[in-house]
Amino acid sequence: MRNLSIKVIIANRPYPLTVSNEQEEEAIRKAAKRINDILKDYESKYAVKDKQDLLAMCALEFATKSIEIESKSVSEDDGLREELEGLEALVSKLI
Fold first, then answer.
1. 3-state SS, one letter per residue, for the chain
2. Do 43 and 23 contact (CB within 8 A), yes or no?
3. Distance between CA atoms of 84 and 15, rounded to whole angstroms?
4. pTM assigned to the model
5. For 30-89, how does the pLDDT look when each residue is reduced to its tens digit (9 = 90+)?
């Protein structure tokens, strides 16, 4: 498989990257666009002009969402495990 060289712009700075396929390229371009959209939103809402501060706020938002998703997945897994154990106990009684 051939690697592709791409360049994305985040906070008006170019970042050259190497990706392994078109799907990865598409995902990276979507992520860069989302970051830039969030930066523009923060720039319009807050009196922060330093791109570094805006990037830190963006990173905090993404990290918070990631933690929320991880926590939700763990609690859903625990609920599923309990249901499966209950079903297993019921099947064991019937056998």
1. CCCEEEEEEECCEEEEEEECCHHHHHHHHHHHHHHHHHHHHHHHHCCCCCHHHHHHHHHHHHHHHHHHHHHHHHHHHHHHHHHHHHHHHHHHHHC
2. no
3. 47
4. 0.70
5. 999 999 999 999 999 988 878 999 999 999 999 999 888 888 766 666 666 777 777 777
Question: 54 near 43, Cβ under 8 Å?
Answer: yes
Query: Residue 15: phi, psi to the nearest 5?
Result: -130, 110
Domain locations in the chain?
4-67
* 54 token code pair: 């805006």
Burial track 10-42 (b if 16+ CB lie within 10 A, e otherwise) = bbeeeeeeebeeeeebeeeeeebeebbebbeeb
